[in-house]
């Protein structure tokens, strides 16, 4: 009889132990599930900006069979281009000659057919300035250069025009990240309200990549060819949810 009593007591104690341990395991799982409750949202921030730098490369060519004559022609054309830019109001230090190229077509190993002009010389005059409005106005008068007999090369940016650059991105980043985070939290709060929860702290955040886009998103629009641009960043943020 005593043995039976001890056996029943031991079985009862074991059952209680299993129940208690099961409660702790279950409670721990519940707490873990609570800790894992979160929502992932994206926050967008955009700001319109204006280019503060313009780079314009004008490449022109001269051809002929007399090298000295071709060199004189390209030098004269270079002067015409520089005078055109200076007379348009640009400073001498904003203009420089670049990339002089000389081709002897008779020296080309794989040439085919007769050669009409043996020598081809190409010269680039580059303008780099912060006066972007003046560049845009001057580009509209490019026909004046063509009227002088200058042969602008199809290989350069002339057909597409100057390149407009915005250099102030780093100064915008802190405020735009803050705005993107604020917008992300607003989205998380809406989600939490719909699910009967509250928004807690940030669990994980990905700042995202800053993009400089054309302000006017028309077909074929290129950001580099527009003075007005849009800076955009999309941040991905995980917020914990609370009951």
UniProtKB/TrEMBL annotation:
InterPro entries named among the record's database cross-references: 26kDa_periplasmic_antigen (IPR052022), SIMPL/DUF541 (IPR007497), UCP029033 (IPR016907)
- Protein name per its UniProtKB record: SIMPL domain-containing protein
One family name in Pfam for this protein: SIMPL
- Provide the GO biological process annotations: DNA damage response
Query: What transmembrane ranges does the database entry give?
Result: none
The domain of life is Bacteria
Q: Which organism encodes this protein? A: Pelagibius litoralis
